[in-house]
Write a structure and sequence with these properties.
CATH class: Alpha Beta
Largest sheet: 5 strands, mixed
Number of domains: 1
Structural class: alpha/beta
Order of helices and strands: EEHEHEHHEHHHHHHH
Strand order of the largest sheet: 1-2-5-3-4
Number of strands: 5
Helix content: 40-55%
């Protein structure tokens, strides 16, 4: 028996999960086959790609930056069956930083706050694209399916009314699935980080997401208020909720 029914086993991807079935505060739950989260899909075999299509996949939102996309193209980028969008949630810092450049994050929770504070336009774009789902399942992914994907999924689950402890649990599940690609992820260490610092950035401790959710609550009044703060309308915020909750 699969200990995590949300996990979707695919050849070439290691952290693909359906976020359906999470209870909400009002006694409902998140819809199955509606939103998937994943690591990079560039290793997917043709059979695995067909599995996702058979699962109902109709949209992919790729959060990786341009260098990652060029080096490891998404197999659905040219698909006629899937609408593909690349919305880099953040890019590496420029060679000559300016005053507007985000400061280097001191920790993972610092990275998540940086995404929320410095890249609202990209987050808004992701949400607007998800609203064009046409009833098909959407998949959001980055390289590991942990950080950039984790922030987007946390916002959506919080907006849907899923309790924070469940959102933290969903985030922490990633740690169980990254072992096969850890060596690849380690090769992406920025020169500004030591090996020890980068190992901490590759971790998936629940506290990182809990701190992020606390920040959203204290600073903005929760994810729904944050989404309105970055420019989504009340109707759009409600539509995201209704899309994900049954």
């Amino acid at each position: 028996m699969n200990p995590n029914p949300r996990y979707i086993a695919l050849e070439g991807a290691y952290n693909v999960r359906d976020i359906g079935g999470y209870p909400t505060h009002d006694g409902r739950q998140t819809r199955w086959r509606t939103l998937l989260r994943a690591d990079s899909l560039h290793r997917l075999t043709p059979t695995a790609q067909r599995q996702l299509l058979d699962y109902g996949l109709g949209q992919v939102v790729d959060l990786r930056y341009s260098g990652e996309v060029s080096a490891s193209p998404n197999p659905f980028a040219a698909s006629e069956a899937v609408r593909y969008h690349n919305i880099p949630l953040f890019q590496p810092p420029p060679a000559n930083p300016t005053a507007a450049t985000p400061p280097p994050p001191p920790s993972l929770d610092g990275l998540y706050r940086m995404i929320l504070d410095y890249f609202p336009g990209q987050i808004k774009g992701v949400m607007e694209n998800l609203l064009t789902h046409n009833g098909a399942a959407a998949l959001v992914h980055c390289s590991a399916g942990k950080d950039r994907t984790g922030v987007i999924v946390a916002l959506l689950l919080d907006n849907a009314g899923v309790p924070h402890e469940q959102i933290v649990h969903d985030y922490a599940l990633t740690g169980a699935y990254l072992a096969p690609i850890m060596d690849d992820l380690r090769q992406g260490r920025p020169p500004t980080l030591t090996v020890e610092q980068y190992e901490k950035m590759l971790a998936c401790e629940p506290e990182y997401m809990q701190i992020t959710l606390d920040y959203l609550t204290v600073q903005f009044g929760g994810s729904s208020a944050y989404l309105r703060h970055i420019g989504l309308t009340d109707t759009q915020v409600q539509s995201l909720h209704d899309w994900l909750v049954e």
